[in-house]
Automatic annotation (TrEMBL):
One Pfam family hit: ATP_synth_reg
Organism: Umbra pygmaea
Transmembrane feature ranges: 58-75
Keyword vocabulary terms for this entry: Membrane, Transmembrane, Transmembrane helix
Name the record gives this protein: Uncharacterized protein
InterPro entries for the chain: ATPMK
Keyword Membrane set for record: yes
Length: 76
């Protein structure tokens, strides 16, 4: 029923019942220039929206803050 096709590593196409759905790869989901090197310093070096590591650190910090608030409310 589903036939995935690959076109030179740039995108994948899923054919189902005559419809063609185009899926971008994970690398293209990171942004138009996610592969370029950015020169950040200080706080922006670890928490930014341009690099995968910076985005991950923002998510981890958000989870840590939510857990701390939850623990503070439960203990209080």
């Amino acid at each position: 029923m589903f036939r995935p096709l690959s076109l030179k590593g740039t995108c994948s196409i899923l054919c189902t019942r005559g419809c063609v759905l185009k899926d971008q790869l994970i690398s293209s989901m990171a942004g138009h220039d996610s592969g370029t090197q950015h020169q950040f310093t200080g706080f922006a070096k670890h928490f930014n929206a341009w690099t995968i590591t910076g985005r991950r650190n923002c998510v981890l910090l958000t989870y840590a803050i939510i857990c701390c608030i939850q623990l503070w409310v439960v203990q209080g």
